[in-house]
Design brief:
Layout lengths: L1 H20 L21 H11 L15 H11 L11 H26 L2
Helix pairs in contact: 1-3, 1-4, 2-3, 3-4
């Protein structure tokens, strides 16, 4: 039971980090690094998702620099179904997007391990 509670707590903290990072940093502050909530090896997959999810309009482009937590929050929000037009993504959208990302990460890991065995 304590393992389940700990896993839920970790997921909740990550989702809250994404929600707080979605707007970037206040003027004069620096952006939080992506490693605050993701592993360094997650960057290529986040960048691939970003390239796929960006649209043609300025509102559908990721305005944050690569390597920042705000960049990853934008990707998770888009994966969670946020369009970029109506309001800011909340914790439920961020959780959905984070879960989509984690599922894709597991899929890529399985695919790479299948090729390692060949």
């Amino acid at each position: 039971m304590s393992n389940l509670v700990t896993a839920a707590f970790v997921a909740a903290v990550i989702v809250q980090q994404l929600v707080h990072a979605r707007d970037g940093a206040p003027p004069g502050d620096t952006l939080r690094p992506i490693e605050d909530a993701f592993e360094p090896s997650d960057r290529p997959l986040l960048e691939a998702f970003c390239a796929k999810l960006e649209g043609n309009t300025a509102r559908q482009k990721n305005p944050h620099p690569k390597g920042s937590l705000a960049y990853a929050a934008w990707v998770c929000a888009r994966l969670g179904g946020w369009t970029g037009y109506y309001g800011k993504p909340g914790p439920i959208v961020m959780l959905d997007g984070w879960q989509q990302f984690q599922a894709a990460k597991r899929g890529v890991g399985l695919l790479l391990s299948a090729f390692d065995n060949v």
